[in-house]
Write a structure and sequence with these properties.
binds zinc ion; binds D-xylitol-5-phosphate; eight-stranded parallel β-sheet; 8 strands; alpha/beta; about 220 residues; single chain; TIM Barrel
């Protein structure tokens, strides 16, 4: 089975979003990764729901929405209305994670939980049945173009073991510093899905780069 590829729009040309989304539509990308940052949970502000709606108008692939915001609960149905298929919240930002995941599921979206580099995977041990996608951060969230943190590989391996042992269908997605080389090591360690911003959009031929990641 090929690796799921979710190019991150954070590295797209914001003045030409329609063009870049259409490029992704005609590529072999599986999902489109949308990074929402609030300047509180992470030290950066990206874009919000109106821009996401504009992306959704043009996109013909599922929107894989990564919330880096301190308080997701009041906005869950807004993100559904804006076109999210997968809604990922950060473990570190959710006091009542189980309740938040139920709300996401009841709103008709797939549930995602993101883990910062310092957050161990075993914290999710009893929660896998409620989680469709675990998003392991391989950089500190907030910015594109950072270097991959190698310790991520052990986390992916440990989570793969946990998922297989529980015969769970949860998908392991990894985000940050992904390129052909780090991507290959991630897939070898059990990653199912790769997010890539700079590697895809800064390449001469983004479609080829997407294909490279898919066939790792
Ligand atoms: C970082 C974001 C990523 C970012 C990845 O906080 O969550 O999705 O776009 O960018 P690259 O692939 O350039 O590391
Ligand atoms: Zn992301």
């Amino acid at each position: 089975m090929s690796t799921i590829v979710s190019p991150s729009v954070l590295s797209a040309d914001f003045a030409n979003l329609e063009r870049d989304i259409k490029m992704l539509n005609s590529s072999n990308a599986d999902w489109i990764h949308i990074d929402i940052m609030d300047g509180v949970f992470v030290p950066n502000i990206s874009f919000g729901i109106p821009v996401m709606k504009a992306i959704h108008q043009h996109a013909n692939k599922p929107l894989d929405v990564h919330l880096m915001i301190a308080n997701a609960d009041p906005y869950i149905t807004d993100f559904k209305d804006a076109g999210a298929s997968i809604l990922t919240v950060h473990y570190e930002a959710c006091t009542h994670l189980h309740r938040t995941l139920q709300t996401i599921k009841n709103a008709g979206m797939k549930t995602g939980v993101a883990l910062n580099p310092h957050t161990p995977v075993h914290l999710l041990e009893g929660m896998l049945e409620f989680i469709d996608v675990v998003l392991i951060m391989s950089v500190n969230p907030g910015f594109g173009g950072q270097h991959f943190i190698p310790a991520t590989l052990d986390k992916v391996k440990a989570l793969r073991g946990m998922i297989d042992q529980q015969k769970s269908a949860t998908i392991i997605e990894v985000d940050g510093g992904v390129n052909a080389e780090t991507g290959q090591r991630l897939v070898q360690n059990g990653a199912d899905a790769l997010v890539a911003g700079s590697y895809v959009f800064k390449g001469k031929n983004p479609g080829d780069r997407i294909e490279t990641l898919r066939t790792l």
